[in-house]
Automatic annotation (TrEMBL):
It comes from Ignatzschineria rhizosphaerae. It comes from the Bacteria. This is Flavin reductase. It holds the Pfam family Flavin_Reduct. InterPro entries: Flavin_Rdtase-like_dom, NADH-dep_flavin_reductase, Split_barrel_FMN-bd, WH-like_DNA-bd_sf, WH_DNA-bd_sf.
Length: 311
């Protein structure tokens, strides 16, 4: 039987989109831990059981195994910073977090999409991970859009292009009321992004890079260099996936790292130029029937919307 390449295996698994959670717990000595995980899944409705898995190398493993309870915090779409915080090996991950104590002292983080407070029900040794099964004793559903994770990058829920318009939406359109769906800016923006990416991503993937690798290359293109930490907000990826993408790009001779600065190699610049050509070509095809003034106005609005979210 051929040996499985761990990196290739992980990349293949990345095709399965998941939600993003932060699992928290506290042992009887008061040691509080939290880790970012996308291995969360349901197991049973009766009894109500869920599971997730933790790497045996994790420094938090002992606390999770000794704690009587843990809480699964399902992150909302605007909590990338929370995901990154609990994915990094910082001294006190809870220092800047707002939370209340749940079952067994586990932290219930604020502003999440949902929470599941669990009693530790069973543990299973599984390769380089330990599977923890929890019995749900309390939960909350806050109705927020979840943060997603796909191909090593954060993502968000968008309607599938094949879905037909619901009868309610059709009725709104027919009435042409002021609440018309096609006057809803959020709907228009999300649908526009979906439509734009629908043809753009296949062209980008044809270069042979994953979405996360291509994103890293594009951000670094034209720059003198940047640290991994500085890349966090620009690429919209957790540090773990930045590390994976950096390793993959190094192996492909597209990236070098000197004194913690990331720099594209000559081959990397050529690849980035190719990606830019794809981006410009697709942009031209989509916007060719608009005037230059219309395009500049559109860009101005987008830049101002982005600036509103910049600290």
């Amino acid at each position: 039987m051929p040996q499985i390449d761990p990196k290739a295996f992980r990349r293949a698994l990345g095709n399965f989109a998941t939600g993003v959670t932060v699992i928290t717990a506290q042992d009887d000595k008061g040691n509080r831990v939290g880790v970012t995980a996308n291995s969360f899944n349901s197991v049973s409705l009766d009894p109500a059981l869920i599971l997730w898995s933790i790497d045996k190398r994790s420094r938090s493993q002992d606390v999770f195994l000794e704690a009587s309870h843990f809480t699964v915090n399902i992150l909302s779409v605007d909590q990338i910073n929370v995901s990154n915080n609990f994915a990094r090996p910082v001294e006190d991950k809870f220092a800047e977090m707002r939370f209340t104590e749940g079952a067994g002292g586990s932290a219930i983080l604020e502003q999440c999409a949902a929470h599941f407070e669990c009693e530790l029900y069973q543990t299973i040794d599984a390769g380089d991970h330990i599977i923890l099964i929890g019995k749900v004793i309390a939960f909350s559903d806050n109705g927020k859009a979840p943060l997603l994770y796909h191909q090593g990058a954060y993502s968000a829920v968008l309607p599938h292009p094949s879905l037909k318009v619901s009868e309610n939406v059709a009725e709104y359109r027919a009435q042409k009321s002021r609440a018309d769906l096609y006057d809803n800016m959020h709907y228009l923006l999300t649908q526009a992004v979906r439509a734009y990416q629908n043809e753009y991503y296949p062209k980008q993937l044809a270069v042979g890079l994953s979405v996360s690798e291509a994103r890293l290359v594009m951000v670094l293109y034209g720059e003198h260099g940047s640290t991994k930490e500085e890349m966090l907000k620009e690429v919209g990826m957790p540090m773990r996936e930045i590390n994976v993408a950096v390793d993959a790009l190094k192996a492909k001779n597209l990236l070098e790292c000197h004194d913690k600065l990331l720099n594209l190699t000559k081959k990397g610049h050529e690849t980035a130029a190719g990606l830019c050509d794809i981006a410009v070509s697709h942009q031209s095809a989509v916007f060719d029937h608009y005037s230059e003034n219309e395009i500049n106005t559109f860009k101005k609005i987008l830049r101002e919307l982005i600036a509103r979210d910049t600290p």
